[in-house]
Amino acid sequence: MEVENNIPEGWIETTLGDIVDSANTGLDAIKRAPIVEEETGIKCFRIQDASQKKAFINWGNTKVEDRNFKKFQLIKGDILIARTGNSIGVHFLVKNNLKSVFNNGLIRLRVNEKADFEYLYKVIESNYFKRYVQSIAYGTSTQPNMQINALLGLELKLPPLPEQKAIAKVLTAFDDKIELLQAQNKTLETMAQTIFKEWFGKYQIGDDLPEGWRIEKLGDILETYLGGTPSKRKNEYWDNGSIPWINSGEVNNFRITEGTTLITKLGLEKSATKLLPKGTVVIAITGATLGQYSILEIESCFNQSVVGIVGNDKIKSSFIYFWIANNIHAIIRNATGGAQQHINKENVNSFEMIIPSDKLLNKFQCISEPIMNKITNNEFETKSLAKTRDILLPKLMSGQVRVNNIKQTTNA
């Protein structure tokens, strides 16, 4: 959303500082004051809460003096932006008045009568804003900082207020649909997880098992693969690649629908990485991501910090996925190493699985496979909606695309 000289009639060129009533950081030293009664429930919002992108699930438990409350209280329409550290630029929109203050790692913006707070928040969600934050950050690469005055210098194209509201409504509709699909996926996974636990979770190694059940080592009944990384010194392994490749950080995602990057066919052939099919269950086996697990929704390669487990005609990916979900803590319990804890492929292969009877296994998979397919479809619909929204956002905010029937849109 680059600011250009040509703007639609009625729009103005302005700065962030001109459309906010106030911009300030929060409390730098929160005192535990006995005069604040427990039932007041005043909380402190922190950078890590903003990064969760959810409505104050994990609040700080620090109480504050009552005289500080009104000055730093968060109300509907406030926008919080992290100003320091690895979270710099992380943002959060306060959608309801809250009995909460915020700390000095955050900048709070409160818009004036010229702007709609939901419109401004969409600007802050744009890549244009992200690039601007990167351009004004100072300090070290590991501890960047952002000054309020520099932030307020952000240049904007500002439509009339009714058009701001219409644009925000269009973009929010995409977000609402995405959130609905994500919530549906969580519900679907919880349903399948509940069935798995009820049918299989009560049995442990050493218990007397029902007739037809057995214990097998994972590596004896399933194929497992350790990933690899093509040499970064070989441009021909990476340039103009077409094959998805993920690092272990990608395993943090609920589902994996695209690669971290792309490698070439030559990169695949000349390295230890493997191209594994959709449905492969992947586990991160080292460092900060140790124990994270996900499932490939696409064919993909991965690096040496990931192990992939491939299903077969008898034991399908849905059973493997929920079995991993219920046993991952036991699998990584014997991790070794100091600051960089890790397990290896053999730890995964040697782990013992309780396999139910063929009849019960098939019954579970007949129930869970359609659930997993629905989750897959929702994930790709979410991805498509997000892509459309991200393409539309800068066009709407530059005036290149206009919202038709503004009055009907804002009053709908």
Descriptive report:
With 412 residues, the chain is of the alpha+beta class. It has two domains: 12-158, Alpha-Beta Complex (Adenine-n6-DNA-methyltransferase TaqI, Chain A, domain 2), CATH 3.90.220.20; 214-355, Adenine-n6-DNA-methyltransferase TaqI, Chain A, domain 2. The protein has helices at residues 47-51, 66-72, 117-124, 127-136, 148-151, 161-200, 218-221, 265-269, 317-331, 345-349, 358-398, 406-411; strands at 12-15, 20-25, 43-45, 79-82, 91-93, 100-102, 106-111, 138-139, 144-145, 155-158, 214-217, 223-226, 243-246, 261-263, 281-284, 293-295, 301-302, 306-310, 352-355. Strands 2-7-4-5 form a four-stranded antiparallel beta sheet. A four-stranded antiparallel beta sheet has the order 12-18-15-16. Strands 14-13-17 form a three-stranded mixed beta sheet. The chain is elongated and about 75 Å long. The relative contact order is 0.12.
- Quick one: how many beta strands? 19
At CATH level 2, the architecture of the largest domain is Alpha-Beta Complex
Mean pLDDT: 88
Radius of gyration in whole Å, from Cα? 25 Å
CATH H-level homologous superfamily name of the largest domain: DNA methylase specificity domains
Could you please say which CATH topology of the largest domain applies here? Adenine-n6-DNA-methyltransferase TaqI, Chain A, domain 2
Distance between the termini: 27 Å
Alpha plus pi helix count = 12
Q: Please give the share of residues in helix.
A: 25-40%
Number of domains: 2
**Helix/strand/pairing category:** alpha+beta
Shape: elongated
Largest β sheet strand count, sense and barrel closure: 4 strands, antiparallel
CATH structural class of the largest domain: Alpha Beta
- The largest sheet has its strands arranged as 2-7-4-5
Q: Show unreliable segments.
A: 31-40, 53-62
Beta strand % = 15-25%
